[in-house]
Fold:
Amino acid sequence: MISNGVIYGQQLVVDEAETSEYRGFQLEAWLGTEESWILPVFSPVGRLELVAGAVITDDETFAVTEAKYMFRAPANNRAGFGLVAGTLIAPFGEFYSYIPVTFPLLDERAVLHGNLGYMLERHDEQHGDHTHTRDDHLLTWGVRADIAAFGPVSLLGELFGENSDRPDFQVGFRLELLPDLLEMDFTYGNSFSRQSSGLGFIVGVAWTPPPLR
Structure:
């Protein structure tokens, strides 16, 4: 999706409030050094977006389901916001929900995004002959800026984290290859914590064919 110079796709962690067009479809996929994703997106009714896909790491594969509803669309100098809820399944369960806020500025040449949410991670732990389930309750947050640089290029930067842990960051750029149809992201992510290596290098694509009529 493109609006006054800023190109919208979704490879970054911090989400925007906007949803796909009514009866719109999008295929998002990215390949990274730490994990890879494939996410088909469909909007069956206005302002509602449904996602079902997979996350692949070196050790596991997760099924992903997600729903996003946009309560108010963002406009220049007016924030838009929505609500997202989703799950990751296998080998452990995870539920998450967050409020995405999008605030376009400078005739939408710069766009700020913020997310604030909650995550429940459920882990099965083996203790001798017994298996115990441990639940982790996490506060999640993130901020992101998209800035139209020149022509088909937008610059991207975000900061995100859980609870009071040291945050991760991701920076890069987005390239519009075919107007309103095909975009590519090139990003690098790392962590301010020595215990985490961050997301590393990621290349992603977003394909958005015309909506069904």
Summary: The CA atoms of residues 28 and 199 lie 17 Å apart. Confidence is low (pLDDT under 50) at residues 1-9.
